[in-house]
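[audit] Reproducing an earlier prediction to check determinism. Same input, same settings, fresh worker. If the tokens differ from the archived copy the diff job will pick it up downstream; this log only records the rerun itself.
[audit] input (265 residues):
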Amino acid sequence: MTTTSQIDRGVPLVEMRDIRVAFGGVHAVDGVTIDLFPGEVVGLVGGNGAGKTTLIKTLSGAHEADSGEIYINGEKATIETPRDAKEYAIETIYQTLALAENIDAPSNMFLGRELRTRWGTLDDRAMEDAARRMMARLNPQFQNLRTAVQSLSGGQRQSVAIARAVHFNAKILIMDEPTAALGPAETAQVHDLIQQLKAEGIGIFLISHDIHSVFDLADRISVMLQGKVVGTVDKNAVTKDEVLAMIIIGKLPGTATREELEELH
């Protein structure tokens, strides 16, 4: 099941066609096709072992697909490593954020890609200025540029991870459980960040177990079960119970009985 909201939207930022990944004969991803458009959030949901993390690793370059094709802006892409993914402007923000705890936001933004002066020394001023401009764009309330990230709140740390990705011209973001373990205020902060990214035309794959967060943030929701896509639905055209029925029993909206829906709770 797909939505009519895709019609006349032009070329997808990402199109993954018939992706298959097997581990020892077990099909972790079994013929999955999904897409993502500019300025859109697609929630990728499913229970543990549904295949969503393995699928998205084929896009991030962390795991090569056994078969299938990936298209970026309508052109076939070859993604075998994380470096390949970055060449296609794909950045991944993992749940752990992969930040260096003992250094500040500018140093984390440029970690491994440091700016240097003409004398070959670290250009701390240029990195701080770039970080300040990026934070002004993404999170104007962020004031702690010189503070080690281990002292920042969860929402601020998420801001640093997003700023690092976007500064290096990400057009496609993969976000793994971006609001996990955050309080309500910090979750709201991350939601604001995601709305800002959407407004700039960035496409986001959002992996989450939190169906409430997915309904708050996603435009479309793709549900996986046992390595396959049950369906992709327009968030505004379904209820949370209908999405739960897709996740748990693989039933498309309108096909589950009232008794089956009641048993989900």
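[audit] rerun output stored. Observation attached for the diff report: The beta strands are 14-23, 26-36, 41-45, 67-72, 75-77, 90-93, 172-176, 203-207, 220-225, 228-234.
[audit] end
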